[in-house]
TrEMBL record:
Similarity annotation: Belongs to the bacterial solute-binding protein 5 family.
Localization, UniProt: Cell envelope
Primary subcellular site in the record, as a coarse category: other
Organism, scientific name: Dictyobacter halimunensis
Membrane-spanning residues: none
Protein name from the UniProt record: ABC transporter substrate-binding protein
Length: 553
């Protein structure tokens, strides 16, 4: 997700190298159930090659603590590292980002509007509390209640019958979600939604333990240690804020059990510091390696870099001067030399982004040039809005220090000042604090990263740039854009739907609702003695964790 969804903001959320074949997948009528509740004991050959101590030191690079542990609040990419270990859901994504069964199998009605899930009978929270279909009814209803204040639920759950009425406090019941019996969940949509099944891999839809939430109230996630928050392969043993979270295997996990006996999730704000700590032998692997530092470690054993379904973007506070003027936003777009930034500063570790939607995503427009660098046009546009630049309000560019290096920020500052003839103040902020400021709309001119929650342009454009979207950090509003994405969602023909999203994206780029900078890649060092850890288009990929273990070395 994004400094995140983001809410769905992400550092390390992915872009796939192969095109998705997701649409046909979502129309599958019956999916076979995979996995099982057996414990996978190591074979004799595994035992001989496994290290005696199975404790994984996992650096969570870019934060000083987990910001979000409630899936309804839209975990950022760093928080999601823990969330996806503690919680699980009806479905999950495999390494190719294909949606596959997890807790349930499913059937889809012929009109593509009714989904019936058969939940495994042995699914339980890590305190042993059983998970039933009613657990899902509770969880999804809670997410939409106004008192939960979820920034993402109303958009993610929009296709579900009754979601809008519940989100707007017209009812307390989610009519489209029913527990037929303990292990049968029926979900009715208002219209066929090709990405719905894929959406369910997002942690928003993962079951929550009602008993824990009711016991501790609004602060329930602060009592994670020792309590059965989720149904994932791990549970929280200890949470030392601003230092680490210790996770241990969930004895009630329905899937294949982890071989690791403990995972130490270690918080480290500065990626450069994290890299040096890894090189000193304090971490078992390293990820989120800054572009400038990849040059020095790219020849080290285990170095790998994978394109992500993720874009780096800039946003502007559209509610106040000077950025309430489209000409000013466009001036900054034309003043940004993305080619030079990617080549000279980011050392070609990423690719230039003329578009918001990255390669590998449905709706990607490879031939669209966007607003290419043109210093003369930039200056002309700015002067059309402010003939006397002295009367222009002062501008501060705020950014998360763990996602934008000092060199990158300085390069952008220099581009804007040279092309536009104005001073731009730089304001680096720690990631969690930055996300808090963006959610409160306290950033005048900022940076965000968005990674795919699921492979559809709805996730990029509707969730972020419609006028009432909670992730619309700059509060950009464009009636033509809103109408176009609304029309796309009412269109059943997928080709026509994508064309409408193409039009919407071009509106957003031309009016600079977002200013795309680059499409990201994730660099990591994964030594050969860490078995089972790879990468996908969504970043680090651990599979079901049962195949992740430490080899003798």
């Amino acid at each position: 997700m994004v400094n995140c969804p983001p809410h769905a903001r992400f550092k390390g959320a992915p872009r796939a190298t192969l095109p998705f074949i997701f649409f046909s997948l979502l129309l599958v009528v019956l999916a076979a159930c995979g996995g099982g509740n057996t414990s996978t004991a190591p074979s004799s050959s595994q035992k001989s090659s496994m290290a005696q101590q199975q404790v994984l030191n996992f650096p969570d690079v870019g934060i000083n603590d987990l910001a979000v542990l409630d899936p309804a609040q839209g975990p950022d990419g760093n928080s999601a590292q823990a969330v996806n270990m503690i919680y699980s859901g009806l479905v999950k994504n495999d390494q190719s980002l294909k949606t596959v069964p997890d807790q349930a199998t499913w059937q889809i009605s012929s009109d593509q509007k009714v989904y019936t899930f058969k939940i495994k009978p042995d699914v339980a929270f890590s305190d042993g509390t059983p998970v039933t279909a009613q657990t899902y009814v509770y969880t999804w209803t809670r997410a939409l209640l106004q008192e939960t204040a979820s920034p993402i639920a109303s958009f993610f759950m929009a296709p579900i019958q009754g979601a809008d009425a519940l989100a707007n406090n017209k009812t307390k019941t989610l009519s489209g979600v029913k527990a037929v019996d303990d292990h049968t969940l029926q979900v009715t949509l208002t219209h066929p939604t090709p990405y719905f099944l894929s959406e369910l891999s997002n942690s928003l839809f993962f079951p929550l333990n009602q008993k824990v939430i009711e016991q501790y109230g609004k602060q329930w996630t602060q009592h994670a240690a020792g309590n059965g928050l989720g149904t994932g392969p791990f549970m929280v043993k200890d949470w030392q804020h601003s230092k680490k979270m210790v996770l241990v295997p969930n004895s009630h996990y329905y899937g294949n059990k982890p071989k690791l006996t403990q995972v130490n999730l270690l918080f480290v704000v500065n990626p450069a510091t994290a890299l040096q700590t890894y090189l000193a032998g304090q971490y078992d692997f390293m990820w989120n390696i800054p572009a400038e530092q990849q040059v020095t470690v790219k020849d080290k054993p285990g170095f790998v870099r994978k394109p992500l379904l993720q874009s780096d973007l800039l946003f502007f506070d559209n509610t106040k001067e000077p950025f309430n003027k489209a000409a000013v936003r466009q001036a900054f777009a034309y003043a940004t030399d993305k080619q030079a930034l990617v080549k000279d500063v980011l050392k070609d570790a990423v690719t230039v982004a003329p578009t918001i939607i990255p390669p590998g995503m449905p709706g990607y427009q490879p031939g669209y040039a966007g607003l290419a660098y043109d210093a003369n046009k930039a200056k002309s546009l700015l002067q059309s809005a402010y003939p006397d630049l002295k009367k222009m309000p002062k501008i501060t560019f705020s950014y998360p220090s763990s996602q934008v290096s000092a060199n990158e920020a300085a390069a952008l500052q220099s581009m804007w000042q040279n092309a536009l003839g104005i001073q731009v103040k730089l304001d680096p902020v720690e990631l969690s604090a930055y996300n808090d400021r963006t959610s409160k709309h306290e950033v005048q001119f900022g940076f965000t990263q968005w990674g795919a929650d699921f492979p559809d342009p709805y996730d990029w454009l509707t969730l972020n740039l419609t006028s009432n979207a909670s992730n619309n950090n700059g509060q950009w509003s464009n009636a033509q854009f809103d109408q176009t994405v609304k029309k796309a969602e009412q269109t059943s023909d997928q080709n026509e739907r994508i064309k409408l999203y193409n039009q919407a994206e071009q509106i957003a780029i031309s009016d600079v609702g977002w200013l795309p900078i680059d499409h990201q890649a994730l660099a990591a060092i994964i030594p050969s003695w860490i078995h089972g850890l790879t990468m996908s288009g969504n970043g680090l990929y651990f599979g079901d964790w049962s195949d992740v273990y430490i080899l003798q070395h």
